[in-house]
Amino acid sequence: MSDTLPLGKKGVPMITNIVNDTSTGDFYFKYHHSAADSISMMNPDDMDSNVVAIASIMYLVADAE
Fold first, then answer.
1. Residue 42: what pLDDT?
2. Where are the alpha helices (DSSP H) in the chain?
3. 5, 29, 40 from 23: Cα distances, Å
């Protein structure tokens, strides 16, 4: 999240994927923006949960006045 944190601090609405990781983000930062950064590194259950959450939020936003 460190690459998007300045946007959040300026009030830009953000959505964060939730994954099982250490408190310091060791898993995320080991692969993020590296040659190993690929969809195969994601836990399928985490991915399913994130897709459901983001789709639900987008539905609510689209349906809001």
1. 80
2. 5-9, 26-31, 44-63
3. 16, 12, 22
Copy the structure tokens of residue 59: 């539905």
* pLDDT score of 11: 92
Contacts of 20 (CB under 8 A, 6+ apart): 27, 43, 46
Instruction: Summarize pLDDT for 4-53 with one digit per residue, the tens.
Output: 888 989 999 887 766 777 777 777 777 777 888 888 888 888 889 888 98
CB burial readout 24-57, b (16+ within 10 A) else e: eeeeeeeeeeeeeeeeeeeeeeeeeebeeeeeee
